[in-house]
Design brief:
- It is a single chain.
- It is built from 13 helices and 14 strands.
- With 394 residues, the protein is of the alpha/beta class.
- A seven-stranded mixed beta sheet has the order 1-9-8-5-4-2-3, sandwiched between helices.
- The longest helix has 20 residues.
- It is globular and about 70 Å long.
- The two termini are 30 Å apart.
Length: 394
């Protein structure tokens, strides 16, 4: 705020702050040099795993280097054949198809509608012949998990949840990440819990958990520092390759004090999102798709569509004029090299024909809304976006 009371353009780039409670533990670790998770059974990483499993109501948790690592290990732990076909939404981050490729499997992209959720007609059509489903709750938007699980359970196809953006989201009151066989979460800086990098996976399946632990890098007898599943560990020791995707203690020390703040951050994020969404939906040129009925989201950003007959040139002008007003808006399909636009995943070969997803990405917009923003800052963002749209289209 300026001296005369005007609201400055809010800083939406900074990540969630690190609690002071983390500092003393970080100092202790730096002084001791005890940064490796397997130095002791009660390491900060081991404590994080126990606390996160309890928070989510899961039997097992494994902390790793990133959510991408969690996705990769989950796929490998399912013991699927080389070349297995894995259904993924066509609207996701490039790390998701990358994890499938790294696991020696083949991504099969499924259409996504203008509400950012999986098109269930296309999903059902592509499910026969699939070996696995990796469902990304992209930007925290939950697809119809009732329909997805019913189809997959009937076909005996395992489901892995990419819940990188969905920590704190619930579906029918059940925590996202606990619906499929494995749930994977991110602690990258622009997520609800900020550790710079880091990830964690949860599961109730002891064999999947044991295989993930071994492959994450529990060499020799380090699996003994994970509680339970001793018979499973002994079965898989030296039978599986080690990918060395462990989390180290400094990351866990940063994450653990933030776990008690998740509920507060979720409430603030939801309130901030809805406040901005209400203003954007009042504009004839913008639409924020509603959540599905069973879904209670935990958003830290907002996505909306440019409604009506926009040209690419007008969409780019809107993006520029919002930027001039101090708010960064990203139109997914019009941002050069955007890692969320499937046609930029050249490592998969020629882009598939996905007209519904392509049309959505060309008019879908993204704005960060960190949970620390004040009401005045949220209003500033909403007004800047609306005025930029009206300036271009009025």
């Amino acid at each position: 705020m300026t001296p005369d009371g005007q609201i400055l353009a809010p800083n939406t780039y900074d990540a969630e702050p690190i609690p002071d409670a983390a500092r003393s533990e970080i100092e202790r670790l730096l002084s001791s040099g005890d940064l490796f998770r397997y130095t002791s059974e009660g390491s900060p990483v081991a404590l994080l795993e126990a606390e996160f499993a309890e928070l989510m109501g899961s039997r097992y948790a494994l902390a790793v280097a990133s959510c991408s690592a969690a996705l990769f290990l989950s796929l490998k732990a399912l013991d699927l054949p080389r070349g297995a076909r894995v259904l993924i939404p066509a609207f996701t981050f490039a790390a998701v198809p990358s994890a499938v490729v790294h696991a020696d499997m083949v991504p099969v992209l499924v259409e996504v509608g203008d509400n950012y959720r999986v098109d269930m007609v296309d999903f059902a059509a592509k499910l026969p012949g699939a070996d696995c489903v990796l469902i990304s709750h992209m930007r925290g938007h939950t697809s119809d998990m009732d329909a997805i699980m019913a189809l997959c359970d009937a076909a005996n196809i395992p489901v892995v949840e990419d819940a990188a953006h969905s920590l704190g989201t619930e579906w029918h009151g059940r925590k996202i990440g606990t619906i499929g066989k494995v749930g994977c979460f991110s602690f990258q800086s622009y997520k609800l819990v900020n550790a710079g990098e880091g990830g964690i996976l949860i599961t109730d399946d002891p064999e999947v958990a044991a295989r993930c632990v071994i492959m994450s890098g529990a060499y020799e007898s380090n699996w003994k520092k994970h509680p339970g599943m001793q018979n499973s560990y002994m079965l898989w020791q030296n039978k599986l390759p080690l990918y060395n995707m462990r989390m180290q203690n400094l990351s866990a020390a940063v994450i653990r004090p933030q776990l008690p703040e998740i509920a507060t951050r979720v409430a603030k994020g939801r309130a901030g999102h809805d406040r901005v969404a209400d203003r954007l939906n009042d504009c004839a040129f913008l639409t924020v798709p509603p959540a599905l009925a069973p879904e209670d989201r935990a958003p830290d950003s907002i996505q909306f569509n440019l409604s009506g007959d926009w040209t690419d040139a007008q969409a780019l002008k809107f993006q520029a004029r919002a930027k001039h007003r101090g708010v960064t808006v990203q139109v997914f399909g019009l941002s050069d090299g955007n890692a969320r636009a499937f046609w930029n995943w050249e490592f998969l070969g020629p882009a598939p024909d996905l007209p519904q997803t392509r049309a959505m990405l060309m008019r879908a917009c993204d704005v960060r809304l960190p949970t620390r923003l004040t009401g005045d800052e949220l209003d500033f963002i909403a007004e800047a976006v609306v005025s930029a749209a009206e300036d271009v289209m009025a």
